[in-house]
Amino acid sequence: MERLIKQGIDLIKGIWSLGVGLAVTAWYLVNRKITVQYPKQVVPREASESFRGPIELVGQPKDPATPKCISCMMCVSACPSGCISITKQKPPKLSPEEEKAFAEAEARGEKPKRPVAPRNPATWRYNYTYCSLCACCIEACPVNSIKFSNELYLAGTSRGDFHYDLLARLKRKAAEAKAAEDAKASETKDSGSADAAAQPGSPNISQAVPEKADEASSASGQAKSEAAL
Ligand code: SF4
Ligand code: SF4
C-alpha cells in the first residue's frame, strides 16, 4: 500500500514537472524572439541591459568622470582571480619652507595637520582575461563604485586588448555622454526656434523666416529618420 502511495506521488510530481516544462516552452513559443542573426543584426539596447560584461567604474553623481572609489582595496582582496590592481594617490609634496614650518610646529609640541592624499585612486587596472564575472568585487565595494557593463561585442587580437584602464574608460564614457547630451540639447533648441519662427504673428518674423523654418524642420526630420535607421 505504502509503495502504491509513493508511486502515485511520483506520478503527480512527474506530471507537474512536465506541465511546467511545457508552459515554459509555450511561453517562449508565443513571445517575441530575442535571438538575432549576428553580424547582420545586433541585439537591441534594451535586451542587453541585463548582460554581464566586463566590470566598469561608477562615476560620482556630480562629477561622472571621477569614480566613487575611495581606494579601500576591498575589491582587490575579494577578487579570487587577481584581476584588479589599484594604486593609491600620494599626499601632495610639501615645499622645503612648508616642511620646515611643520617641523618647527611639531618641535613646539603642536600637532599641525599635514595634507593627506586624495581618496580617489591614481590607477585602476582590470585584467578581463582572468575575470570569471563572479561579482565578488561588486559585493565587496562599500561605496558601490563597481558595476557590470553590458558590453556585448568585444573582440581583440591579443590578450593585451582586454587589460583595461578603468579610470581612462570612465573619463571617456563621461565625455561621450556629455557630447551626446550637448548634441541633443542643441537639436532641441534648433527645432524649438524653427517652430517658433514658423508661427504666424510671432515677433521678429521676416519673409525669409518660413523658408528657413522649413529647411530647419526638414533637416531635423532627416536627422531623426537617419538616427532611426
Ligand atoms: S567579477 Fe570576480 S573575477 Fe571579475 S574582477 Fe570582480 S571579483 Fe574578480
Ligand atoms: S572596493 Fe570599491 S572603493 Fe574600494 S578600492 Fe575597490 S572600487 Fe574602490
Describe the secondary structure blueprint for this structure.
Layout: H1 2-30, E1 55-57, H2 74-78, E2 84-88, H3 96-107, E3 121-127, H4 136-140, E4 146-148, E5 163-165, H5 166-198, H6 209-228
Helix pairs in contact: 5-6
The protein binds iron/sulfur cluster (2 copies).
One iron/sulfur cluster (SF4) binds next to α4.
Account of the protein in words:
With 229 residues, this protein is mostly helical. The chain has helices at residues 2-30, 74-78, 96-107, 136-140, 166-198, 209-228; strands at residues 55-57, 84-88, 121-127, 146-148, 163-165. It has a domain at 45-90 and 117-170: Alpha-Beta Plaits. The chain has 6 helices and 5 strands. Helix 5 (166-198) runs antiparallel to helix 6. Residues 55, 78-79, 81, 83-84, 131-137 line the site of one iron/sulfur cluster (SF4). One iron/sulfur cluster is lined by residues 69-75, 86, 140-141, 143, 145-146.
The count of β-strands is 5
Largest sheet: 3 strands, antiparallel
Return Rg in Å. Answer: 30 Å
Terminus-to-terminus distance: 69 Å
Mean pLDDT over the residues:
84
H/I helix tally: 6
Rough shape?
extended
CATH topology description of the domain at 45-90 and 117-170: Alpha-Beta Plaits
Structural class: mainly alpha
The CATH architecture name of the domain at 45-90 and 117-170 reads 2-Layer Sandwich
Succession of helices and strands: HEHEHEHEEHH
Proportion of helical residues: 40-55%
Biggest sheet, spatial arrangement of strands:
2-3-5
Instruction: Catalogue the ligands.
Output: iron/sulfur cluster
Approximately what portion of the residues adopt beta-strand conformation?
Answer: 5-15%
**CATH class category of the domain at 45-90 and 117-170:** Alpha Beta
